Records
---
Amino acid sequence: MKEKSSSSIAENIKRLQDEIAEAAIQAGRDPKEVTLMAVTKTVPAEEVNLAIDSGITLLGENRAQELESKFLAYDKEGVDIHFIGHMQSNKVRHIVDKVTMIHSVDRISLVKEIDKRARAIDTVMDVLLQVNIGEEESKSGVLAKEAVDFSKRLQEYPNLRLRGLMAIPPWVDNQNQQEHYFSKMNELLVDIQAKNRDNKSIDVLSTGMSGDFIAAIKHGATIVRIGTAIFGEREYS
Ligand SMILES: *Cc1c(COP(=O)(O)O)cnc(C)c1O
């Protein structure tokens, strides 16, 4: 059953914030380094606004069309919106004015389109490079071994700024295995910081989700993208 009451969303957020802080402290990190993103796919705008009332300051959107239909209804004061879904190039122009970061950059043709559309509205778009860390056929993202070269190529595009890495690792039920992928992502971020000239702003690691965020935080996650654990199971119609 999908939890819909405002109290359950508020309780879920409170519990997650406590768990995130605890995981950060366990890892010797400052809890302020980790931001809880509410992933809104399939969730009505009213419920997203309840999450914002309960302290959420960052939303994650998967689909351009869904963002366009809910955007006006969101209580956006003090809230950032990031795009986290697979991005079709022809949708970029619909979202560049609505989001402050795109997590799912995975090919140069998309980089070119973001650069062009950001320039058209006189902005610089923050982006993350999506890495297919488990080398899965079904997932987008560059391979880990391609990531450093790809990150350097981004420097040729002035209206786009590389801020870090994103991954959706293979689902595994075991914390040791989860940690394997997250620690590889963390190592890759360090490598990219070392090999890019403009590396001062490369500091974002967008990794954990509802089922694995504790392991992600242990290995450097700065954004955890959480849907189910806030809003309940998704209902796809
Ligand atoms: C849906 C989604 C999430 C959230 O997944 P949950 O398991 O519901 O927390 C995170 N990241 C991306 C890219 C997603 O599409």
---
Amino acid sequence: MIRERIEQVRERIEAAALRCGRRPEEITLVAVSKTKPASDILAAYEAGQRHFGENYLQDFLSKNARLANLDGAVFHFIGKLQSNKTTPVAEHFGVIHTVDSQKLARRLDRSPKPLGVFVEVQLATEQTKGGVAPDDAQPLIDYIRSCGQLSLSGLMCIPPWSADPEQTRPYFARLRELAEALGVEGLSMGMSHDFEAAIEEGATHVRVGTAIFGKRQPKP
Ligand SMILES: *Cc1c(COP(=O)(O)O)cnc(C)c1O
């Protein structure tokens, strides 16, 4: 089941890329396994999936023991990052998508191993969500570039939710324009219901959960 869904998502990624003249290999599928059991992650790994996204540190740690020997697997932290959790997050994850302050970057830079980081940008004014204002992205990027253990992977956004991908497409386009203005390459954007629109707007990393692992129970 998971294998078939991954294949379907990969086919859709490829079709979306080819539609807009991009190479499918430019796009990394991050399979979002939050709240799902380790057995689901293992099934996806066996189907060739290597990049996984997790939101909740405790949830991840509860299944981590079963994931220790997955050669080549990369775990992406895509949830809200609290500054008192940066040490365990840096220990267990390879890429952090939700860096939105110098304080977080400074703490992540203490990591003993190198980390990829995306700067999360808040394109709408939703106080409940994280992200730097577009105008504040440049100084944070400059700071991250000065950090020895951090490499800038790109910009990330979570647009206001809408079932209609045409409603989120303008946010994807704005994130791409901002990245171009800042000279940044990577774009982490697009989820199960709108990743094709995100790819058409330039996404390099799509974060897809439900379309691979099925519906989730509410947050643990
Ligand atoms: C849960 C989550 C996703 C995946 O959402 P789906 O709709 O299940 O594909 C992507 N990005 C973030 C930041 C998430 O929290």
